[in-house]
Amino acid sequence: MHYHPLNELKPVAPEVWIVDGPSIRFYGIPFPTRTTVIRLADGGLWLHSPIKFSTELLDKVQALGPVKHLIAPNWLHYASLGDWAAACPEATSWAAPGVLERAQNQGFALAVDHEFGPGVEVSWADEVYWHLVGGSATHREVVFFHPQTRTLVLTDLIENFEYKKMPWWLWPLLKIAGNTHPDGKMPRDLAATFNAGRAELKAAVELMLSWAPEAIIIAHGRCYECDGVGQLRRAFRALLD
Question: In the chain, count of helices (H) and strands (E)?
């Protein structure tokens, strides 16, 4: 179910890497994990959805530059943020709305420097665009775009699981969720939380389309190396039609 090798930096584009990590259980289901690393113009590193911390992985990451920003992109992707923040005290942490509340409910002692929302200013806004997607009754996710390489970074808005990478006993659930390669998209249970806010979700998708991404990095499953615009239109065709 993993994209080996784990805990190794894999180049996606100039100044952009991913790191695949161990699985984490969500309601008893093992989900693979993935961090995106972007090196900013000042040489500092921007880490999206940090995976399980280890000093060995930190050394590999810091060989690229100092860790300056740590991103918890939605209310489900925060489990390792605290460990990375403790190991990188000079880094600034950023979290989507809902992260602190769920962390507290799950017994995590988590603190962040900034929460994404209206009026929030980020120092890296010219290098990594961001948008807080609205419309869901429960799900708050921030999407990101690296214009230099036309790379879109998503978390759970598109999942693209490959059957061969997942345990056989999960195959029926994946079929029901409808989030499998080659037709990866938002899982049906998550999509249902946007039923009353489809207009806001559509506006977010149209914004992402206007960015004209080439590659799309996702947290779960096979990423899209090319034709990002086409993949967005395919994944959200029911919304856009």
Answer: 8, 11
Confirm whether 3 is domain-assigned.
no
The CATH number linked to 232 is 3.60.15.10
**Tens digit of pLDDT at every position of the chain (241 positions):** 468 999 999 999 999 999 999 988 876 777 889 999 999 999 999 999 999 999 999 999 999 999 999 999 999 999 999 999 999 999 999 999 999 999 999 898 899 999 999 999 999 999 999 999 999 999 999 999 999 999 999 999 999 999 988 888 888 988 998 999 999 999 999 999 999 999 999 999 999 999 999 999 999 999 999 999 999 999 999 999 8
The reply to whether 2 falls in a domain is no
Domain containing 197 equals: 9-116+127-236
Rg (Cα) of the chain, in Å, rounded? Answer: 17
In a domain, 91, yes or no: yes
Overall domain count for the chain: 1
CA distance 81 to 49: 8
Contact 22, 80 (CB under 8 A): no
pTM of the model: 0.96
84 domain-assigned: yes
